[in-house]
Amino acid sequence: MMGHLLGAAGAVETAVCALAMREGYVPPTTNLVDPDPECSLDYVPNTARERRLRHAMNNSFGFGGTNCALLLSRYDG
C-alpha cells in the first residue's frame, strides 16, 4: 500500500506497474470490505492475484492540478 509521495508519485506508481507486469500479478485494492453491488468491476480485494499482464495503466493526480496517465505495454521481442 502506498500513500501520497508528492513529486515522486508518478515515478513510483509507474515502477509498480512495470514490476507487476514483469512478475505477473495484479496488486490488490487494500481495505476493500464492502464493494458496491451495483458496480460490476473485477475487484482484487486485499490479496494480489496472479495474472499475465500485457498492459497496465497508471493514473497520477498530483497537487496543483499536475495530472498524468501512462499506458505501459509488455515487450516480448
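That was protein one. Protein two is written in the same sequence-then-structure order:
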Amino acid sequence: MVDIARDPRWGRIAEGAGEDPYLGSAMAAARVRGFQGKDLRAPDAVMATVKHFAAYGGAEAAATTTPWTSRAHPAEIYLPPFRAAVDAGAGSFMTSFNEMAASEPRQTAGS
C-alpha cells in the first residue's frame, strides 16, 4: 500500500508510509525490492502488488469514493510512489475504486 494519505480519519492510513511523497516513493521502491528480490524466479521471491492506483489515499473525511484533488495533486502528490514502484520493477498493481475530481473546489456564493 503506497498511497499518500493526509487525513487521519481514512481507515487505511496506518498501512502506508505517511503523507510525504518523497518518503512514500523511497518506501515503495524498498518494498518492491524487498518482496521481489533480484530475480522473481528465486524460491524466496514474491511478486509485489502495488496498491491502490491512484489517489485512493486522497480521501477526505474518511470518504473513500471521491477524493478531492486539484489538477496538480495527482502528479505531484499521489503518483510519485507508484512511479518509484514501477522503476523498482513492480510486478503488478491493484486499482482503486474511487473516482477523481479533477477540478478545483466549487466556489459558493459569497466566498
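Strands lie at 49-53, 68-69, 92-95, 101-102. Keep this in mind for the problem set.
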